[in-house]
Every structure is written in C-alpha cells, then in structure tokens.
Amino acid sequence: MIASYSIRARFEVLIKEDRGNFTLEATLIFPFILISTLALIVFGLYVYNQVVIHQTAGIASERASFVWDNSFKDPLTGAFVPGRQDGLYWRLTQDAALGIFGYGGADSTIEVPGGSGGSGPAGKLSRTASLLPEGVKGKMTYANRIWARIISADLEESFKIRSFLPGRIIREKVDGQGASHVVDPVELIRTVDLTRTYVPALKNRISAARAKEVLVEPGAVQIPDQGVLSSEAQARAYIKKLVSGTEKPITTAEGEVRNVDALDASGTAHQAYYTFTDKGLREQMKKDISLKNTGTEVKGIVWHFFKNKSASKPSKALLQELAANGIAVIFHE
User: Fold this and answer.
1) Is this model's pTM higher than 0.70 or not?
2) 162 plus 60 within the same structural domain
C-alpha cells in the first residue's frame, strides 16, 4: 500500500515538474523543422532551374529569329560582314516555303547538342544551338506556314540535387519551351511596295462591262446544231456562239485587213470555212501568220472546216503547211 502510494506520488510530481520540457520538445520538433526547411530549399532550387531552362529556351528561339534573314549574322550581336548574305530568293529556295505543298521543305528540326551548321534552316538553328550552355539537351524546330514562320525550342537539363533525395519526390530533369515568330521587315516592305505599285496599275486594265462580256456562262448561249448548217454565214455564226467570240476586222503588219470570224477572250482567232479552195486558203493563211507573229491582239489561230455538199477537204500539203505555221485545224463532221 505504501509502495503504490509512493509511485503515484512520484508520477504526479513528474507531471507537474517543468524542468527539461524545452529539451524534450526540441528533440521531437527539430527533425520536422529540418526536413521542412530542406524540402523548401530543394523545391526552390527546382523552381529556379525550371525558370532558367524556360528562359534559355526563349532566348535561343529569339536569337534564331533575330538573325534568320542572314545566315552570316552573329546570333549574339547581329553583326555581319557587309556583302555576305543569303541569295535574293532565299525565302523561296532555302526557307522551307514549299513544305506545305510537300516539296522538299518539311519542318526543320535539329538535336541539341549535335547541330553541325551548314545552310538553310537547319544550319541557322545549329549556329544558335551552339551557344546553349553545356548540359542542355533537346531540340529546336523551324516551321514555315507562309502566314507564320515559327522557331521553337524544347530543352531539358538534369536536376543534380535530385540524386540526394529518396524515391521520386522530384523529377530528375527540368524542361522548358520557348517560341518566337520570324519578323522580316525587308520582305514586308517589299510586299507592301509591290502591292501599292501593281494594284493601281492592274485595277483599270479591264472595265467591268468588258469583264462581264468575257465571263459568259456556257449555258447562257444557244449553240445551233451543226448538222443543219448549209452556208458560210451559218458556219461563222455557229463558231461565234461556240467560243463566245466576236467578229472583228484586224489589220496585218502589211496593211491588209483580215476579218476574224470569232475572236475569243483569250485572244484566239477562230475562222470558219464551209466552201473553199486551196488557193484561197493559202491567201488567208498568209494574213493569219502575220497576225499571229505580230501577237498584239491575236495570240493563236484555229481553223474550223465544216462538211458541205461537195464534201471537199483541204489538201494534205496545205494541212502540213498549217501545222508547220502553228495554225490548229478542227473538222466538224
């Protein structure tokens, strides 16, 4: 009984006694504080490295886009030796402009590190990639979409502090992406000047009324049946309807007048023949050759022969002469 009371009394004294409390509490709490502090430091370092790799990717894409218009520019300063530049038509031949059509111009991608320089998009990317810090890996890509030319960098770097941590609390690598548009002031100015120069010049080349005459819907005209033709006049009318052409007298370089049966919108002169002789055709051929060689109004000649009662046809020799002089022949049976 006395022993039990003694133990209880000592326990009560221990509970009420406050000596050593600080040491005990510190011993229990300190590991948690230490672990939390280290975790915050490591997390801060991870975020810092993540930001740095993002900045590195952004700077790499910006440097490449900054010097994209000249392969000889320094990616850091933009300096280059006067006279050393890409050809005048590099935007068409060396800029992957034909990639959207599938002709030798697919998106250019290089591995980092590993770029070997050279010409074209891959060479320009390689020169910029060579300036990246050691240990950075990934790829750089150039895509030409005509309306937008984009350089992108997808980079990564090892996070070395990761090796001191247990398990997979934090990733082994940090990665970052950056993209920049290629801005080409020279090409923009050239395009604007080209538009300002040629649009006003082309605007009044053809009147609205004339354009309406040229753009005749095929179904809007009634073409007669060639099987019922019985005269030269009907043959000419048939050809005019067929090609939507206009009858027009044109003077040759020798001063002779040639009556074109139907001059179509493309400048092709169509002649209709129902009754004819080789001698008469040769006289007309001389005029047509002169009109064709002059090339002002007449760009081409087509002769149309229609079946008549006499069933006569031009001779083989005449047909050979027509072919030799670039005059096309069509027989309407």
Assistant:
1) no
2) yes
